[in-house]
Amino acid sequence: MADNDTTIMDRNMAIEAVRVTEAAAIAAWKWTGRGDEMSADAAAVEAMRAALNKLNINGTVVIGEGERDEAPMLFIGEKVGAGGPEIDIALDPLEGTTLTAKANANAMATLALAPKGGFLNAPDVYMEKIAVGGGLPDDLIDINAAPAENLGRLAEAKGVEVSDLLICVLDRPRHQELIAAIREAGARIQQISDGDIYGIIETSQPHSRVDMYLGSGGAPEGVLAAAALQCIGGQMQGKLLFRNDDERGRAAKMGIEDFDRVYDLNDLASGDVIFSATGVTDGGLLQGVHRGSDSASTQSIVMRSMTGTVREITTRHDFSRKPNEDA
Hints:
Blueprint: H1 12-29, H2 37-52, E1 58-63, E2 79-80, E3 86-95, H3 97-101, E4 108-115, E5 126-133, H4 147-158, E6 166-170, H5 176-185, E7 188-192, H6 196-202, E8 212-218, H7 219-232, E9 234-241, H8 245-253, E10 263-264, H9 265-268, E11 274-279, E12 290-291, E13 295-304, E14 309-318
Parallel strand pairs: 1-3, 6-7, 6-8
Antiparallel strand pairs: 1-2, 3-4, 4-11, 5-8, 5-9, 9-10, 11-13, 12-13, 13-14
Helix pairs in contact: 1-2, 6-7
């Protein structure tokens, strides 16, 4: 459970979070379309780490680039910040490395902050996920139920036919049976190549046509998406998926005891949560980085669960006045 003292999450922290995701997005943008996923990710990680170390926080990365032996920077357990209140950090410096490498839509830099204990300390394994937007009856979704049952409940709650629903699913071979079951139930599918944080957030966007997210993806991305839903409203459940004993052992070291547990939204992210994302490439949620000769523009979204405030921020960065293209 998260610390109930929300006073440590000063409102200025939201703007500071945006500065962090802006820095990562600008660094990653330089690698768009160059076919080099690793360099794009490394640039975003380095920029995000440098920006985090300027914040007046005593931060701990609980959702990061992986365990210490797999990630040289922003690994799980790494301490960041210049000193201050204890803050847990969930991050994905570049959500959509492949999207960036191919200059495709919807790549973004993401970050979430919460008082200590606010995020599930999830291992870097797969997670089965189901999510819907806000304004629906409580306990509407059930990750253990068949897709047809969840779709029927959602259609009834929205007062529409199942055939009117649009379901977002990652385009992966592992989802062939799921996709077949959704179509057999009569719903439509939006298949996305990458970016399930984006897909889950879309269920809660007023302009979006997406009604539900279904399928499996990274557990760290599941926690970040849950942080966003805590701010803007929605329902989500997740269930960790383990492929071997090594993954179970890693999970056990991180405090996971029940390997079959279903995590709800409050289990994944709770307390006074701040979520920020900045676009790297243009997409449905955010515009990407647009560069000039000595400047750039970025678009970000930042949310806070305690107040329900959602800000869309467009920033012009004048690099002639800021050294090292510092966001």
